Amino acid sequence: MPFRTIEEVLGLFVAAKAVTIDSRKVPPGSVFFAIKGERFDGNAFAIRALEQGAAAAIVDDPEVASRHAQCWLVRDAQQTLQDLGHAYRNRFAIPVLGITGSNGKTTTKELVAAVLSRRYKTHFTQGNLNNHLGVPLTLLAMPGRTEMAVIEMGANHQGEIAHLSAIADPDYGLITNIGKAHLEGFGGIEGVKKGKSELYRHLEQRGGTAFVNLGEPFLKELVQGVPELVTYQAVRAGEVSSADIVCTVHEIAPFITYSFRHKGQDYRGKAQLFGAYNVQNIVTALAIGLHFEVPADRIVEAIADYQPGNNRSQLLERGSTTFLLDAYNANPTSLEHALRYLSSVKTNEKKMAIIGDMLELGETSQPEHERMVKLASNLSLDKVVFVGPHFADPAQRAGALHFKDIETLKAWFDSYSWDGYRILLKASRRLALERLLAKPSTESA
Predict the structure, then answer these.
(1) How many CB atoms lie under 10 A from the CB of residue 5?
(2) Where a domain ends, among 274, 305, 336?
(3) All residues at 6 or more sequence positions from 432 whose CB lies less than 8 Å from its CB, including other chains
């Protein structure tokens, strides 16, 4: 049985206009890709996908391919999905912006997309579909009339951004920052710098344009070689910058306010975001919007209208308690920023931080968890609580309050009233720290 070519698969996809890798969710007439995972083999579900309405199934098991005429045999279904995403992307003569970085990728992506959408038909990564499967799926979801594409690219080891860049082939790109995230996979901060800057190397080879935040360390040195740069920076009132685009920050709490000057006119804006770390996301969206000639007043409107969600930088009022829900993920860099922000806020509320384990730190895990305990203990906070096994020893040695898991923490938390508190929730995704905000269960009589 001959293997199908990428040209044949592209023709099939263009006719179908939809793909799926989940046999439980098969849009009628879509193309099912039999992807292999750690605990499953998509080939085993190919016939089921066809029975549920798929037009064809892309498989890499010859035995499965022999069982149904609409099972198309390829050498590697995952590679074919990625090649198809790349081939379809190349049908679009539009700007494609790649976004990566240690922190703030998703919020930056959403802000940038919100700004660009004020002028262009903009397609962008949904949710957190930023890996070796999410990137091609994002590309394949582009409507035919798309005028701009914003592709988020995540990684936890070297070589991954280079691979994703080869699939998406962005001609514009930015790195939000270089921080202490996924240190285990990257092999330390130098590995993070090398891995994230693979996007710069792609732009260098492609002759593309990089957006560079001069307020972030490492980026200016790493971007050397990229032929075209657009620099930007957020500053405090009275500070100066050599950046192409400068944004002045006035307040970071309870929400960020900022101003900028464009074509001889002054603009002032406000976001529904808090903290210095979100300033960088805002100024990035501002710089990209101005570069692509989105009207300045529409940029301000887009940033003001953006509402954070999905456990990222959410400010929630529950009675007389304020929650800063930033529990989508955590690493030493993002956690330090969040703690320092909470400490700096001028408020009559009491300040409390509930901090969960930071994962994927490798050999730096113990010293980084110890450093966070020491940092939190020395800041202007009324109460600090730690949860998870990685914080157990350092919290115990510091005499800090610690809980082994979310269940025991929640039982304690629900037994008190937190009226008049401002509470930060921050932890790695696996802990799902937002569960702390679920209403206490009540037993029926």
Answers:
(1) 12
(2) 305
(3) 327, 406
Mean residue pLDDT across the chain: 94
**Which amino acid, one-letter code, is at 300?**
V
Nearest to 132 by CA among 161, 172, 97: 161
Domain hosting residue 331, numbered range: 314-437
Using an 8 Å Cβ cutoff, are 427 and 387 in contact? Answer: yes
Please name which of 197, 303, 316 lies closest in space to residue 249, comparing C-alpha atoms.
Answer: 303
Task: Say if residue 74 is in the same domain as residue 211.
Answer: no
SS3 182: coil
Taking the C-alpha atoms of residue 424 and residue 311, their distance in angstroms, rounded to an integer, is: 12
43 and 112 belong to one structural domain: no
296 and 372 both lie in a single domain: no
């301000």: which residue's tokens? 300
pLDDT digits 0-9 by tens, 129-188: 999 999 999 999 999 999 999 999 998 889 999 999 999 999 999 999 997 766 667 777
Q: Give yes or no: residues 121 and 228 share one domain.
A: yes
This prediction's pTM? 0.89
Q: What tens digit of pLDDT does each residue of 349-380 get?
A: 999 999 999 998 988 999 999 999 999 999 99
Q: What CATH number is associated with residue 265?
A: 3.40.1190.10
- What CA–CA distance (Å, rounded) separates 50 from 34? 12
Q: Is residue 416 assigned to a domain?
A: yes
Q: What is the pLDDT of residues 26-56, one digit of tens each?
A: 999 999 999 998 888 999 999 999 999 999 9
Measure the N-to-C terminal CA separation of the chain; round to a whole number of Å. Answer: 66
Given 248, 279, 305, the domain boundary residue is: 305
The structure tokens 């959408």 sit at: 117
Q: What is the separation of C-alpha 357 from the centre of its chain, rounded to a whole number of angstroms?
A: 19
Structural domain includes residue 382? yes
